[in-house]
Amino acid sequence: MQRKAKHIPVYDICALQDNSGSLHDDLIIEPFGAYLKRHPHLTVPHRHSFYHMLLFTKGKGMHTIDFEQFPVAKGQIYFMAPGQVHSWQFEGETDGFVLNFSEHFLSSFLKNDRYTDQFTFLDGIAANAVLQLKGQVYEETKALMGKILEEAEQKQPLAMDVIRICLLQLFITVSRSEGSPHIQQSQQHNIVTLRNFRRLVEQHFATLKLPKDYAAMLYITPNHLNALCKDQLGKQAGEIIRDRILLEAKRLLVNRDMQIASIAYDLNFTDNSYFTKFFKKLTGITPEQFRKAIMDHNSKS
Questions:
Q1: Distances in Å between the alpha carbon of 211 and those of 207, 221, 225, 247, 264?
Q2: Which of these, 80, 69, 8, 3, lies nearest to 252 by C-alpha position?
Q3: 70-74, long-range: CB within 8 Å, 24+ apart, which pairs?
């Protein structure tokens, strides 16, 4: 259910299920038009505690993931990881397929619980999460969504396993459409190291803010970590850490009831002044100005 805590509203998967008796507590699959009618409040910024994906079959307008805006279009699919913030501003009738699933839904089925790490659209980075499907790829993806919906509605034996297989097939189909190059054996270790670095940043960004802290946990030197980040991501390790702190600050600022001094405290800044300087240096505006801009935008939506 919705939690009215000090942070932006967070929805658990059970809060979004209908009353018809769900096939599984860890899964929701539904035509998006019906889903949107049942949950009109989801147009305002909020978070999920589960994975969320949506394939548009019609619609116009904009949607926002972690404060990056994307235009809605037929054939677009987006993926969101738990904790990301998003909102919608649609124009006219919008439809498609929405699928929500818990972190446990696939991990309980796969022998390798890191299998889905290879799909960059699930990594929680907005720029990687929104894809435009065309032609046969769009038709195949739409058909897979339809098959998942059919299995969920009919509730046949082993339906959950069929759904999991279809979902993995969907991931592979979308990933192949992006033309991801084959990773050479010599590069695999570096990619695993970077994934572990991002995972550690996600866990510790509020308390560990220096590359050397993460390098120590990865058993590499800070220079090596910086070189990997620069080569693969185009940024220094310190930038990756600062970007994650900034993103969390923006997420917290969406809640108008949370004092900025409290946000600074939650993110382990020594005082509100230091937090404001940090935020303005990276964005060009103060936390107060950012919050006002978000509130003004939401009031016009």
A1: 12, 9, 8, 18, 21
A2: 8
A3: 70/130, 73/132
Shared domain for 17 and 97, answered yes or no, is yes
Residues of the chain scoring pLDDT < 70:
1-8, 14-23, 179-188, 298-301
SS3 of 193-222: the string is: HHHHHHHHHHHHCCCCCCHHHHHHHHCCCH
What's the pLDDT tens digit per position in 49-98? Answer: 899 999 999 999 999 999 899 999 999 999 999 889 888 889 989 999 99
To the question of pTM greater than 0.90 for the whole model, the response is no
Angle (CA) 284 289 295, round 5°: 130
Is 77 a domain residue?
Answer: yes
5 assigned to some structural domain: no
CATH code of 96's domain: 2.60.120.280
**Residue ranges making up the domain that contains 65:** 10-177
Beta bridge partner(s), residue 10: 3, 47
Q: Is residue 3 part of a domain?
A: no
**How many whole angstroms separate alpha carbon 145 and alpha carbon 139?**
10
The Cα diameter of the chain in Å comes to 59
Residue type, 226: N
> Do 90 and 209 belong together in one domain?
no
Amino acid 139: pLDDT: 97
Strand 46-48 and strand 27-31: the pairing is unpaired
Q: Does residue 267 form part of some domain?
A: yes
Mark whether 200 and 157 lie in a shared domain: no
DSSP reduced 3-state for 146: helix
Backbone φ and ψ for 93, nearest 5 degrees, come out as -75, 135
Do residue 58 and residue 172 come from a single domain? yes
Give residue-wise pLDDT tens across range 180-201: 544 454 566 787 888 889 989 9
